[in-house]
Design brief:
This protein is α+β, with helices and mostly antiparallel strands and 141 residues long. The chain is built from 3 helices and 6 strands. A hairpin with a 5-residue loop joins β4 and β5.
């Protein structure tokens, strides 16, 4: 069973996953209570309130089961975050919308299938859409 997500877990994982790299754009992110993450290209003029507004609108729009375009698993694809988290405990679940993803963290050494991880991510996204509680953003520090 995946671990509960808190603000520290979201911040630590997002800092590692979205660490600026020469080949990728810097991004802003907003993390919700159940692990859903909204990602948008960095805007130097963005405010925390504007990011949260965009995130709330986006999660409401893309919360349902998608068109099935994610992967052979359906509307989502599960990606283990190696080598950033070598214990294999951190997963990103991507969906139809490139700006919405789910963070699923398992116990170290726990084995779960891609399908199970993806279904947890989809369920968490639905919970966050029904009750959007922002617990961390890239602008918190």
């Amino acid at each position: 069973m995946p671990k509960l997500i808190d603000a520290k877990v979201i911040r630590d994982c997002c800092k590692q996953i979205f660490k600026p790299k020469p080949t990728t754009a810097n991004v802003h992110w907003v993390g919700f209570k159940n692990g859903t993450i909204f990602v948008i290209k960095e805007d130097p003029n963005a405010s925390k309130d504007s990011l949260i507004g965009l995130a709330n609108n986006s999660i409401a729009e893309f919360a349902g089961v998608g068109s099935g375009a994610g992967s052979f698993l359906g509307d989502f694809a599960a990606h283990q975050q190696l080598p950033a988290f070598p214990d294999g405990s951190v997963w990103i679940v991507t969906f139809d919308s490139p700006s919405i993803m789910g963070l699923v963290v398992t116990e170290e050494g726990e084995s779960m299938s891609d399908l199970s991880i993806g279904l947890h991510g989809r369920n968490y996204r639905a919970l966050d859409a029904d009750n959007p509680v922002v617990i961390a953003t890239s602008l918190d520090e």
